[in-house]
Amino acid sequence: MPWTDLLDAGRIVVLDDPGTRAQVLDHAARLLSGGSPAQARALSDALQQRERLASTAIGHGVAIPHARNQGLEARGAFLRLGRPVDFDARDGAPVDLVFAMTASDDRPELHLEHLAGVAARLSDPEFRDRLRGVRGVAQLRRLLLPPAVAANAA
Question: 88: number of CA atoms within 13 Å, CB side?
Fold first, then answer.
């Protein structure tokens, strides 16, 4: 499954005032939860716990917070932050591009494949520049989603 299959137009957002890292992770959890408040709380806790183990920032202003969760299919959410947030990245750069992910506990190999695919794509400096340069969520969705999906989301 390509990393783009994790995304849905409704889970691609621009947060003009993202707040703190914890608030960004809470927002990501709500996007990933499918509308369930209980699932959002559980995901937020899981994302926060994973972040306490080690920063999910991969450098160059990118973070890939992720957690596994029983009973929830693999999903992704993309958040472009209007103001960079400190994620304790090794390179010291604050984060403004966040790709949050969740996967089912019973498919750890698929979770690792998704992580690798997202990290590879977001390691491309030209792609990161394009993500930062587009105006508005509609253009961001067109950049992140396959053309047929993006056309239906507009």
Answer: 9
Q: Which stretch of DSSP H or E encloses residue 84? A: strand 75-85
H/E segment holding residue 94 = none
Residue 68, beta-bridge partner list: 103
Q: For 65-124, how does the pLDDT look when each residue is reduced to its tens digit (9 = 90+)?
A: 998 876 678 899 999 999 999 999 999 999 999 999 998 777 767 778 888 889 999 999
Long-range contact pairs involving 145-148 (C-beta distance under 8 Å, separation at least 24): 145/4, 145/7, 145/9, 145/12, 146/4
Q: Known catalytic residues? A: 66
Tens digit of each residue's pLDDT (9 = 90 or more) over 20-50: 999 999 999 999 998 889 999 999 999 999 9
- Burial of residue 5, with CB atoms counted within 10 A of its CB: 0-12 exposed, 13-18 middle, 19 or more buried: middle
Where does residue 152 rank: exposed (0-12), middle (13-18), buried (19+ CB within 10 A)?
exposed
